[in-house]
Design a protein that fits this description.
The protein has 154 residues and is mainly alpha-helical. Helices cover 85% and strands 0% of the residues. It is built from 6 helices and no strands. The longest helix has 36 residues.
Length: 154
Amino acid sequence: MEVALFFHLLGAFVLVAGVVVAGIAHAAARRRRRPDEIALLLGLARVAVLLVGLGAALVLAFGLWLVDLSGHSFGEPWLVAALGLFAAALALGAAGGRRPRQARRLAARLAESGRGASPELYGLLADRASAAANYLAALMIMIIIALMVWRPGA
């Protein structure tokens, strides 16, 4: 059980680290004026998204194993809520990452051509729907962590 718990917690730390790094990189990119800097920072966010994926896979795989090892039921309300929030957070994060990905590609093209940042680039970076999806996904992850720590009703 200790091995499953170790990798589950490792996955949680990697997942949260990826979310934090991606958020910081995107926020920093929004404050830059040169397309090459924006592309670099959004490239860092892309690497952070890989951490999110790795962390999510570890959390899910070892979390499900922990449920089996601990004798908990997959029908327990705190677990059903956590799994539902997990799926929703991943879907929202993926949706929220579309505009930053488009911004990274546009910034790279602008940098390669030697042009400055365009209004289109700033619009992609400032997309409110993407920001809302990402903030909501991060909030869901925090709620999941609370559910995992306190396991209400367990």
